[in-house]
Amino acid sequence: MIELVNIKKGFGEKIILPDVSAVMETGKVNLIIGSSGSGKTVMMKCMVGLMPVDQGKVLYDGQDFTNMSDHEKKEIRQQIGMLFQGSALFDSMTVEENVMFPLHMFGKGTLRDKKKRVMECLERVQLKDAAKKFPAEISGGMKKRVGIARAIVLNPKYLFCDEPNSGLDPQTSLLIDKLIKELTLEYNITTVINTHDMNTVMESGDHIVYMYQGRKQWEGSNKDIIFSKDEKLNDFIFASDFLRDAKEMRQLEMFQESNWRDKLKKG
Ligand SMILES: Nc1ncnc2c1ncn2[C@@H]1O[C@H](COP(=O)(O)OP(=O)(O)OP(=O)(O)O)[C@@H](O)[C@H]1O
């Protein structure tokens, strides 16, 4: 579990996150959503320590990351996997070498053990056959999967994904979402995804934090969204007439489920 406690972050006079508190839950896909400029990336960078916070703290399973020594921070960082926007693979390295990279940096054990672990991860993302290829020789979806294999190679407790679906077609996006969700459950990872993708929200949003102008405007699950009365959230998620209609249809379907009265009361 990752907790943000009263995080404040600004640049000069400009305050981006005035006071954010949120919990990223273990074994769940936690999504940070919000329009452009709402502070999602700044929040994620504060969480992983790429940006120092002005006030407040970030706790990793109860440990105060914000006030740790560099040595202690390094230990937490080794438990963090990151999937960057655009995959950020090294072009001059093969798929296998890209996935090996974190093991060379931080991993213990023999070269043989490391190679075995790399192949396990490539197998998990169904890319064993592409091990000797270079990034230029594979598709965007495959690159994302290499990025995922690299992010999980050190068995992370925490996984951060920045816009994992950017540049992918809807079908490939769904496959990537499914893979991230499966890995999250399989290894009980605290996964945090920064996304604009509404498919991801509706399919993978176990826990969603909606940011509006640097503040946490709403939080809940993909099921709660259907019944949310928060106008800003509704304008953001159900932006088109088509999606508003789809929401109403889904509400009708869910009304027929047993606990609909509770959902309505909750809002
Ligand atoms: N290093 C920086 N220096 C100054 N301002 C910054 C810096 N990084 C971000 N900002 C500002 O913080 C605000 C929030 O930016 P952020 O990148 O977090 O938005 P976002 O919600 O991730 O947007 P997008 O969805 O477009 O990626 C923006 O106004 C941005 O200009």
Automatic annotation (TrEMBL):
Pfam families named among the record's database cross-references: ABC_tran
Gene3D superfamilies assigned to the protein according to its UniProt record, in alphabetical order: P-loop containing nucleotide triphosphate hydrolases
Entry keywords, A to Z: ATP-binding, Nucleotide-binding, Transport
One annotated GO molecular function: ATP hydrolysis activity
Record's keyword annotation contains Nucleotide-binding: yes
Domain ABC transporter: 2-238
Domain of life: Bacteria
InterPro entries per the UniProt record, alphabetical: AAA+_ATPase, ABC_transporter-like_ATP-bd, ABC_transporter-like_CS, P-loop_NTPase
PANTHER family per record: INTERMEMBRANE PHOSPHOLIPID TRANSPORT SYSTEM ATP-BINDING PROTEIN MLAF, PROTEIN TRIGALACTOSYLDIACYLGLYCEROL 3, CHLOROPLASTIC
The protein's name in its UniProt record: ATP-binding cassette domain-containing protein
